[in-house]
Amino acid sequence: MAGSRDLDRIHGHRARIGYTVAAVTTEVYPIDWYRIVPHGVSLMMITLPLGERSKEDLEKCYRISIDAARTMAKAGADLVVLGGLPINISKGDGTVEDLMAGLSREIGVPVSSSAAAQVAAFKALGARKVVTVHPFLPDQNPRHERTIASFFGLEPAGVYAGGSNLVELGTLPPARALEWGRAAMKANPGADTLYFGCPHWTVIDAIAPLEAEFGIGVMTSLQAIAWHSMRLAGVDDRVPGFGRLLSEH
């Protein structure tokens, strides 16, 4: 039974993280977020209508992200993270950092992004040659390779497409990430890092098994965002069970 001291604390008594979600609906993200973060770290979410990732969708989501950040700051977020890698980088190189700095000054709350989180995670893991697994159709492969090379500045070592779509992500069981991760590594054995794109499908249970099996670093979007957010908010806990990033950095 919770004591009176616990009842006097809000859920985010250690940190309240605001996050703009690049999906019209999300169910996996909050479930897996609360499996990763320690007690006292809460998640404040506003969803974005990303749709089919058209230029118009990206521009609309970009504008909504800015308004959402202002709203979350007013609601008491300790940190705001702008989600959606395609949205983060839609304006071109250099814009993400400028946007975060300017917005932080305006709203009086630190601002980061899912792009910045993943840059930091790749660096922490010492990534150089990256194989990517994403849950979408193969027509998305070139976009993922370009992002690894041009945005992250790393060597693309291959891409594995799961063949699903945005509306089906919540129906993918944890075994899919393990299965697809193994297939990607066996097809691209020279990679030193395995990267799971998109934080809206169940991936975190595959991280530790794949690291142990292949002797590589594994980074997922959600894992990187949770890790980066906690560190920026002053939560330095080492979290076991979800890969080297959270247990060692």
What does this molecule look like?
By secondary structure, this protein is α/β, with parallel strands linked by helices. It folds into two domains: 4-113, Rossmann fold, CATH 3.40.50.12500; 118-223, Rossmann fold, CATH 3.40.50. It has eleven helices and eight strands. The protein has helices at residues 4-7, 28-36, 55-74, 85-88, 95-107, 114-124, 141-151, 174-187, 207-214, 221-232, 244-248; strands at 15-21, 41-47, 79-82, 111-113, 129-134, 155-161, 193-196, 217-220. The strands form two sheets. It has a four-stranded parallel beta sheet with strand order 2-1-3-4, sandwiched between helices. Strands 6-5-7-8 form a four-stranded parallel beta sheet, with helices on both faces. Helix 8 (174-187) packs parallel to helix 9. It starts with a helix and ends with a helix. The model has no long low-confidence stretch (mean pLDDT 90).
Can you describe this structure in just a few lines?
45% of the residues lie in helices and 17% in strands. With 249 residues, the chain is α/β, with parallel strands linked by helices. Strand 5, helix 7 and strand 6 (155-161) form a beta-alpha-beta unit.
In DSSP terms (H or I, runs of 4 or more residues), the helix count works out at: 11
Q: Work out the count of structural domains.
A: 2
Q: What amount of the residues lies in strands?
A: 15-25%
CATH topological fold name of the largest domain: Rossmann fold
User: What radius of gyration results from the CA coordinates?
Assistant: 17 Å
Spatial strand sequence of the major β-sheet:
2-1-3-4
Q: Give the strand tally.
A: 8
Output the CATH class name of the largest domain.
Alpha Beta
What average pLDDT do the residues reach? 90
Shape: globular
SSE topology string: HEHEHEHHEHEHEHEHEHH
* CATH architecture verdict of the largest domain: 3-Layer(aba) Sandwich
User: What structural category arises from helix and sheet content?
Assistant: alpha/beta
